[in-house]
Amino acid sequence: MSDPAYILVIILSVFLAVSLLLSIILLIMVITFVRRVNSVAASVQATAENVETVVSGVSKVTSPMIIAKLILKQFNQAAKGKGK
């Protein structure tokens, strides 16, 4: 091979080595990012489950309160009607 061919092979091998190194670095960064996104998603899911538990607990308490309020309102209306 001639001298220009050797120079071209050296230049191409250097570019290949650099691109391979950059690809490995990028792959490591992408894997790190995906792990962080997974941890955030797990945290959001846990928070949503906690909120769902709180809402179901509140709904269990408020339903009897609403019924009691309606019954009390009926008693008050009956008492006002009886006094007339």
Structural class: mainly alpha
The helix/strand order is H
Quote the average pLDDT: 88
What is the overall number of helices? Answer: 1
Name the helicity range: over 70%
**What's the alpha carbon Rg, rounded to whole Å?**
36 Å
User: Which term fits the overall shape?
Assistant: rod-shaped
- Ends distance: 119 Å
Note the main attributes of this structure:
84 residues, mainly alpha, 1 helix, 0% strand
Structure description:
With 84 residues, the protein is mainly α. The protein has one helix at 3-83. The protein is rod-shaped. The termini are far apart. The mean pLDDT is 88.
Topology readout:
Elements: H1 3-83
Summarize it.
The protein is mostly helical.
